[in-house]
Amino acid sequence: MNRRNFLEMVGLAGGSAAVYQMMNVMGLAAPSTTYAQPSLTGGGQGKKVLILGAGLAGMVSAYELQKAGYEIEILEYNPKAGGRVWTLRGGDKYTELGGQTQTCAFDKGLYINPGPWRIPHNHQAYQHYAREFGVKLEVFPMTNYRALIHRKSGVRERIGPVSVDMQGHISELLAKAVNQNALDQSLTPEDKGKLLEALKGWGFLDKNYAYTKSLATSLYRGYDRDPGARLEPGTPSTPLTLSAILKNDLWTDLSTPLLYEFHSTIFEPVGGIDAMAKAFEARTGRFIKYRSRVTNIKQDTTGVTATYEDLASGTTKTARGDYCICTIPLSILSQIPSTGLDSKLTEAIKKVPYAPSFKAGLQYKRRFWEQDEAIYGGITYTDQSMGLMSYPANNYNSTGKGVVLGAYMFGPDAVKFTGMTPADRLKEVLRQNTVIHPQAAKEFENGISVGWHRVPWTLGCYGLYSEKTREEYYPTLCALHDRFILAGEHTSYWNAWQEGALLAGTSAVEIIHKAAQGNA
What we know:
4-stranded mixed beta sheet, 520 residues, globular, 5-stranded parallel beta sheet, single chain, 17 helices, alpha/beta
């Protein structure tokens, strides 16, 4: 059982409060409820910091350091900044490891975010820079009760009714236990009365404490025919049985929104996730040397030197700084030769694998999920290998085309899809989309996919820690090693999030500045 599955079970049993309490116990709930920019008193004039990588961690480091007077140089592998904070739009070309090139054919204004795609409300470093840079955000509906839970057995149910039915059946069972005095040892008579009253309201029970088909129940789970004017009260819908919910494991997709990181409100940048990367690039781009592939890192007593290949000219060059902030993913860094670095650090770099992940974006001729099924944004879950579908959270009721995140998967399924050709990936994703939405086959136009272990600049989605690697290697990865320090989502407990990259970058800046002041 992995950490997320365990927390989902906690959420199902005890609700969001229990999830948050358990995350506190596990040391996972450490939101940046307030964010203070680094205060670099004393200035950095006369000192140079070499930054490897122009993702968010590298650019936020540069942004804060340059304000204090440090000289900055950034080496970036790609021809643009952002790293995994990446949006694919019409006309973009992407060549994956192995040489296969895809050209995105989406219509103007449509896009897919292959990496990060959501910003939780409690990611305050991100919110801070969004305000400072004017990055506009829109609401991302993590939970849409009109979206679906689908099973390969043919079961296809709306999330809302399943949630209400599960709550109702559990409430009825608990009410029976209370009325049969099965809980007297833990309840006072006063508590018993209050609990029964609560269960009746919370579980939508009738006067006999039963969860049944009725107009009152349909007020929560929905109707077979909605109410209308005059003498049209609506036709009540029939609840799923508890047996059906359990038999088809429908409950397993009800608790994901209870995870603390998914609590409302969740945002996305207007126009694509790369809005923040572009905002940082506009402010730090003058420091960046693009298309620079680092081939060697050497630290000595006075600084750090990076040897790199200038991919534009094919020549080998060097860059040097008094200090170095390295944001290169560990999956890549572990393959770069180095000298002068702590042996414990070089060992730790090799011990953290990167999560396999796969995404596919599909453009459809019309927004059939809205027009035919009244699904506006949100996520549909399935036990097919595609994992989920996420519907666009903008341009609602548009009569034009739309792009759906048609697959998002991790683990063995992601590895399997990553190993397929781009054409075969889309063919299978479309087939699975069509199982859920029969309209998909007719409406499909084009698509693009990203298997993260074939992304040349990261070779994986994010640093994947176990309890052992967190305990044994994580402190070493977070520490300053003479004049060299790592930064990125892999040096944060918000790993896999943009917030983690931002916090890791700003904390590296503070550590470097303190060391530089001591060596002034």
